């Protein structure tokens, strides 16, 4: 009997120890996956698949251009009507905005946030756009065969792992634009970095959106926000086309009170342009546009500006300097995905920028998940950990004392980097992620918290 009791106690103790050990291992694995995935280098299959050289992200909408030309008169009418609706809506609510001004935090013009206007629905666009995003196949056919194909079917089934509080909205809806501006202002961001393609062009899953810029500018001004442009990698982008793009933007929108200009250390007020996938173009081509001696030089002209390049790999910092860019940003919200997006590399990048008179703009994000459109890519998911991942990124950014912090993103729903309000939703076999146990506005509140912290710390840096 004594031996039986001893053996029973031994078995119980062994089971408890084994269970605690398993829980400990699971906790360690979760922590490694969420907060410090620095060893997940850019050379993994996900990084290679997203490189523009292997899988071009954007295309010129040639087939749509002819129909656009035929419908140009209708388009102008629609845009004019949309602008009129927006203006009337704003006039009707200006008194409420004045009241909001007293309640909302002041905008921080050193907090820049990436914003997308590529969403559409039948009410405003005649069809769903982007919410019906296709499932992208893996480049390896053997792997691709293991995953579903097709596209999403809104409004219940959308190309995102989270579900927006505003539903499958249209970016043309004035009430949506206003709600977005109010959310961004409540987060104490100051500058909207608007995803932009030249007129008649768009990404491969969208429609041209340049016509929306005046409405975005008007609503931004209503909330005392500024707008700058995130120039996307359209087909045949080079020094000549970029010169015409910049001229077009400044001529068309530069006089608007919401158009962003950055005050440089020399006292100049210059527009700012973020250039996505800038590394696709060789430095010699960029130097034609961005250096004083370049054949297509924009320097010291009425269209001079601050041009911010995307840094992905470490070697890009030298290319950026040779190209004549004024600074670099890191964009990706996946810590460890690329050299630039890995938090532990930001100090050395900031030091390089300081020694070469460049701006370093780290990009922070609340997490990353894109398995709704890349179902094979769960190894690059970065869990939000109820906001801790976001705060870790902000903390890392503040350590290098940047002049500007960029936020990826306000509403890039496909990649799960949004801080826009999201709500719990279950439909059929789909269960969307949400921000519980927090409220839908938790990431706006966290942004506002870190905006204030940044402001206070910046005052200490400048003393």
List strands and helices in order, with pairings.
Elements: H1 2-34, H2 45-50, E1 58-59, H3 62-70, H4 72-92, H5 94-103, E2 108-115, H6 122-125, H7 141-144, H8 174-186, E3 189-196, E4 202-203, H9 213-222, E5 226-231, H10 239-253, E6 262-263, E7 269-270, E8 272-275, H11 283-290, E9 306-310, H12 316-323, E10 327-329, H13 346-355, E11 359-361, E12 363-364, H14 388-399, E13 405-407, E14 426-427, E15 430-431, H15 442-462
Helix pairs in contact: 4-9, 8-9, 10-11, 11-12, 14-15
Give the percentage of residues in beta strands: 5-15%
Class by SSE composition: alpha/beta
Estimate the helix proportion, in percent: 25-40%
Count of DSSP H/I helices: 15
Q: Which descriptor suits the 3D outline?
A: globular
Order of helices and strands: HHEHHHEHHHEEHEHEEEHEHEHEEHEEEH
| Gap between N and C termini | 77 Å
Protein name: Glycoprotein endo-alpha-1,2-mannosidase
EC number: 3.2.1.130
Membrane topology: Single-pass type II membrane protein
GO molecular function, one term: glycoprotein endo-alpha-1,2-mannosidase activity
